[in-house]
Structures are given as C-alpha cells and as structure tokens.
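Ops channel
N.P.: pipeline sanity check, posting one input/output pair.
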C-alpha cells in the first residue's frame, strides 16, 4: 500500500517519478508490480488522489480544469505508447501548478536563476 500524500511536494515528487517510471519502468515497490500497463494506471490513480493538494496550491478553478485535462491527456498518451508526449504533459502539470519552483529553489540556494 502506498503512503498517502500529505503535502503538495509529495504530489510533485510523484509526478517527477512518473515522468521516469511511466516511460522506463516502475520499481517493484509499494503498489507497483510486474505489469507495466497496470502500473501506469496505478500511478495515475495515485496522482488523482493528490488532486485536492494540487487544488489547494493552485486555487484557480480554470487552471484546475486545465490540469485535470492534462492528466487525462497524459494518461491517454501513455496508453497509446507515446511516452515523450505523456512525459511532457506531466511536466506541463507541474509548470501550471507551481510555475515558480525553479526560482524558489535558486533563492533557497542563494543562486541567481
């Protein structure tokens, strides 16, 4: 059983792991087994479980509708075998939900962006 998401950063990390795992294979940990196609479905189900945390971060109904559409489009791309498109769509979700993440990271490190 997978751990429940507690913060937006948990969901963000899950999306990052999905970008790699949906294309190249999932580790056989937690809810993931040997069936890659089933693992993709499980990963997207987990992502949808984190949607309330995305909504809390975004707080814009139009943007949430767009993010939901991107989730559906990414899943459809992976189901069709288009890993590159699926990965880009997942990254688009992060760009909408947290557009300043790289700037905030650089500021914490004391580096210019």
């Amino acid at each position: 059983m997978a751990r429940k998401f507690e913060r937006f950063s948990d969901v963000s990390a899950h999306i990052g792991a999905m970008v790699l795992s949906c294309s190249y294979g999932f580790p056989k940990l937690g809810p993931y087994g040997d069936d890659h196609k089933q693992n993709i479905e499980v990963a997207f189900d987990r992502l949808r479980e984190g949607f309330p945390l995305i909504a809390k971060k975004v707080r814009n109904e139009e943007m949430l509708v767009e993010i939901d559409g991107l989730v559906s489009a990414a899943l459809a791309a992976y189901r069709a075998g288009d890993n590159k498109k699926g990965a880009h769509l997942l990254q688009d979700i992060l760009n909408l939900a947290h557009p300043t993440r790289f700037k905030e990271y650089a500021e914490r490190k004391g580096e210019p962006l």
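N.P.: looks fine end to end. The chain has a mean pLDDT of 90.
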